[in-house]
Amino acid sequence: MPIVTIQQGPRDVELKRDLVKRVTDAFVDAYKIPAETVQVWIHEVPADSWAAAGRLIADK
């Protein structure tokens, strides 16, 4: 059973629904497995808890 973990900043629920469907479909197509076996975990990190290039995303 594939488990996909996506780490990102907060997104609208409709965008997440679309993403989860596309990721699931990609695994179904690539591995020829039932969609029910694919799990997608979305871990949302607030901008004040994520940094890039030495700066918090919230400060950009």
UniProtKB/TrEMBL annotation:
UniProt entry tagged with the keyword Isomerase: yes
Record domain 4-oxalocrotonate tautomerase-like: where: 2-59
Record's keyword terms, sorted: Isomerase
Stretches of the chain forming a coiled coil according to its record: none
Gene3D superfamilies: Macrophage Migration Inhibitory Factor
Keyword Isomerase found: yes
One Pfam family recorded for the sequence: Tautomerase
InterPro entries assigned: 4-OT-like_dom (IPR004370), Tautomerase/MIF_sf (IPR014347)
UniProt-listed SUPFAM superfamilies: Tautomerase/MIF
Source domain of life: Bacteria
Signal peptide: none
Family per similarity comment: Belongs to the 4-oxalocrotonate tautomerase family.
Name by which UniProt lists this protein: 4-oxalocrotonate tautomerase DmpI
Organism listed in the record: Streptomyces hokutonensis
Organism classification: Bacteria, Bacillati, Actinomycetota, Actinomycetes, Kitasatosporales
